[in-house]
Design a protein that fits this description.
The complex is a heterodimer. Chain A is an all-alpha fold. Chain A has a two-stranded antiparallel sheet. Chain B is of the alpha/beta class. In chain B, helix 3 runs parallel beside helix 7. The longest helix of chain B is centred in the C-terminal third of the chain and has 16 residues. The radius of gyration of chain B is 17 Å and the shape is globular. The two termini of chain B are 34 Å apart. In chain B, 46% of the residues are buried. The chains are: A mainly alpha, B alpha/beta.
Chain lengths: 287, 234
C-alpha cells in the first residue's frame, strides 16, 4: 500500500464528509428548532435526486443548472410538510411525532416506487464528468464539485443562521419559543422557514449527487442513517457539530474501508459513534 | 383606558383557574397584581398575551378587542411581556437578545436609537453587550429581560415576578428602573408576591385569591386593609 493510496482515501473521505455534513445540517436545523426528528430526511434526499433526474430527462437541464429549481421544489415541500403535518403534532407526544415523520418517509418511498418504479436511474452525460489529477491523486470531477458546492452551502447556512436577523430569530425560537412569541416573532412562520431551509440543504446535496449516484426510491436510507449519526455525534442542534461529524464519518468510512475491510464500512462508522456517545452523550459540540 | 380586561375566565383544559376577573390600567400607571402562590397572577398576564386563551370575557387595548389575536401580534400594538424567570435567550449575546426585542413595525425602524436609550438606562448591558446571556447573574438577566421588553417601544410593559431571587441591592435598582419607565409614560403591570414591596412602588393594586379578585384599590388603601391581611395570613 502506497502513501498515494492513503492520501487518495483521505481525500475521498473528506469529499463525502462535506456532503454528509450538509445533509446532516438540514436534519439538525429542523430538530434544533422544534425538537422534531425528520425520519423522512432520506426520502427528501431521494425526492431531490428524482427532481434533478426528471428535470434532466424531460427538460434537458443538467443537475448543476437545475439546483435552484430542485431547491425551490424541496423548500416548498418543506413548507407544505410543516403546514399540513408538523403543525398539528408540535405539542403531541414524542411517539406521535416519530410516527408522523416515519409515516411520511414510508409514504414518500412508496409513492416514488408507485410513480417511478424501483428501477435504478442515472443522469447520463452530465456536464461534470471525468476526473482531475493532482500530483498522482485522482479525484472524480462530479464528486469534487458536489463536495465543493455542499461545503459552500454549509458555510452560507452557517452565516445565515448566525449573522442575519432572520437567522437570529430562528435561534431565538429554537432556544425559547414562548419568549420569542412575546417579542413578536411568529414561531409558526419560523418553523416553516426551518423546514424550507433544512430541505434546501438536502436538495443541494441530492442534486449534486445525482451526477454520480444511482437514483432509486430507497437511495435515501443509507444517507439518512449517516445524517442521524452525524447529528448525534456532532451534538443535537449544533450546526458546526454536523460539519465535524460529517468529516469524521467520511474519513472513517473511507480509511476503514481501505485499511481493514470495505465490507464492514458501516461498522466502523457506528463503532466511532458508539464510543463518542458513551463518553459524551450530548455529542461533540452538544450543550 | 389603555388596557381593559373584562370578566375573563381561564381554564387549563377542564380545570378552571380564573373566575370573572376584571382589571384596567391607564397610561403611565404602575399597577401591581398581588396574591399568594398559585392564585392565578401569571395566568392573567399570560391570557392578556394570549399564551393561554380566556374561555370567557374580553381583553381591550386602546379600546380595540385583542383577545383573539395571536401572541406575536401584541408587540406591534405596544404590549411587551417579560415572562416569569426572565427567559432571555441563553445562547445569544446581550445585544442580540436586545435587538430581537425590536422585531416588529415601528420598533424595528427605531431599533438603533432605542438601543442607545436602553444602554443609557442599563449601563451594565452596554458593558456586556457581547457576552452570552446565560453567563450573567440573575439580576443582570432580569435587567436584560426588562430592557428587551423596552426595545419593542411598548405603551404597556408587563413583568412577571421581577424581583424573584434578586439581592436587596438589585431589588432597589429594578425599583428605580421601574420609576424611570413610568416617568417616560409607559404603563407597568407587574406580578409580585411581596405585598409591602409592591404596594410601596405601585399606584394601585389588584389582589387575587385562588382565581378570584378579592380586593382592589389605591396602594395606601390596600396597605391598611384588613381584608388584604386575611388573604395573606389566612
Amino acid at each position: 500500500m502506497t502513501i498515494e493510496i492513503i492520501i487518495q482515501a483521505i481525500i475521498s473521505g473528506l469529499l463525502m464528509g462535506f456532503i454528509y455534513a450538509l445533509i446532516a445540517a438540514g436534519l439538525s436545523l429542523i430538530f434544533g428548532l422544534m425538537g422534531i426528528v425528520n425520519f423522512a430526511h432520506g426520502e427528501h434526499l431521494m425526492l431531490s435526486m428524482f427532481s434533478s433526474f426528471w428535470l434532466w430527462t424531460l427538460l434537458g437541464l443538467d443537475p448543476i443548472i437545475s439546483i435552484p429549481i430542485t431547491m425551490l421544489i424541496l423548500a416548498i415541500s418543506g413548507i407544505l410538510t410543516h403546514y399540513l403535518l408538523i403543525r398539528y403534532i408540535l405539542k403531541a407526544k414524542m411517539i406521535v411525532q416519530i410516527c408522523a415523520t416515519f409515516g411520511l418517509s414510508v409514504f414518500l418511498r412508496s409513492l416514488a416506487q408507485f410513480l417511478w418504479t424501483p428501477d435504478f436511474r442515472n443522469v447520463g452525460n452530465p456536464l461534470l464528468e471525468g476526473r482531475l489529477e493532482i500530483a498522482g491523486i485522482f479525484i472524480g470531477q462530479p464528486q469534487f464539485y458536489a463536495s465543493l458546492v455542499c461545503l459552500l452551502s454549509f458555510l452560507l447556512l452557517y452565516l445565515f443562521v448566525n449573522k442575519s436577523e432572520t437567522g437570529l430569530a430562528l435561534q431565538a425560537t429554537a432556544q425559547d419559543r414562548k419568549a420569542a412569541e412575546t417579542l413578536g416573532i411568529n414561531s409558526n412562520k419560523m418553523f416553516a422557514l426551518g423546514w424550507a431551509l433544512g430541505l434546501s440543504c438536502v436538495s443541494i446535496a441530492g442534486t449534486m449527487m445525482s451526477n454520480f449516484f444511482f437514483i432509486f426510491p430507497d437511495v435515501g436510507v443509507h444517507f439518512a442513517l449517516f445524517a442521524f449519526v452525524a447529528v448525534a455525534l456532532g451534538g443535537f442542534g449544533s450546526i458546526i457539530g454536523c460539519l465535524i461529524a460529517g468529516i469524521i464519518i467520511g474519513l472513517v468510512e473511507s480509511l476503514g474501508g481501505l485499511l481493514i475491510d470495505p465490507s464492514y464500512k458501516l461498522l466502523y462508522v457506528f463503532l466511532i459513534y458508539l464510543i463518542v456517545v458513551i463518553y459524551r452523550p450530548q455529542g461533540l459540540f452538544g450543550r | 383606558m389603555l388596557l381593559q380586561v373584562n370578566n375573563i375566565d381561564v381554564a387549563y383544559d377542564e380545570f378552571q383557574v380564573i373566575w370573572n376577573v376584571s382589571i384596567s390600567i391607564d397610561q403611565g400607571e404602575m399597577v401591581a397584581l398581588l396574591g399568594p402562590n398559585g392564585s392565578g397572577k401569571s395566568t392573567i398576564l399570560n391570557s392578556i398575551s394570549n399564551l393561554i386563551q380566556p374561555t370567557n370575557g374580553e381583553v381591550l387595548f386602546d379600546n380595540k378587542k385583542i383577545h383573539l389575536l395571536p401572541t406575536y401580534m401584541r408587540t406591534k400594538l405596544g404590549i411587551s411581556h417579560v415572562l416569569e424567570r426572565r427567559r432571555v435567550f441563553p445562547f445569544l449575546t446581550v445585544k442580540q437578545n436586545l435587538l430581537l426585542g425590536a422585531w416588529n413595525g415601528e420598533a424595528k425602524i427605531q431599533k438603533e436609537k432605542t438601543l442607545d436609550e436602553v444602554y443609557i438606562m442599563f449601563p451594565i448591558l452596554s458593558d456586556r453587550s457581547n457576552q452570552l446571556a446565560h453567563t450573567m447573574s440573575g439580576g443582570e438577566q432580569q435587567m436584560l429581560a426588562i430592557a428587551r421588553g423596552l426595545m419593542g417601544i411598548p405603551k404597556l410593559l408587563m413583568v412577571d415576578e421581577p424581583f424573584l431571587g434578586l439581592s436587596p441591592k438589585m431589588i432597589e435598582k429594578i425599583k428605580e428602573i421601574f420609576n424611570d419607565i413610568v416617568n417616560k409614560g409607559i404603563a407597568i403591570l407587574f406580578v409580585e408576591q411581596n405585598v409591602k414591596l409592591a404596594l410601596k412602588m405601585a399606584d394601585r393594586g389588584y389582589v387575587l385569591e385562588s382565581g378570584h379578585l378579592v380586593i382592589e384599590g389605591k396602594s395606601d388603601y390596600l396597605l391598611n386593609s384588613e381584608k388584604l391581611k386575611k388573604v395573606f395570613l389566612g
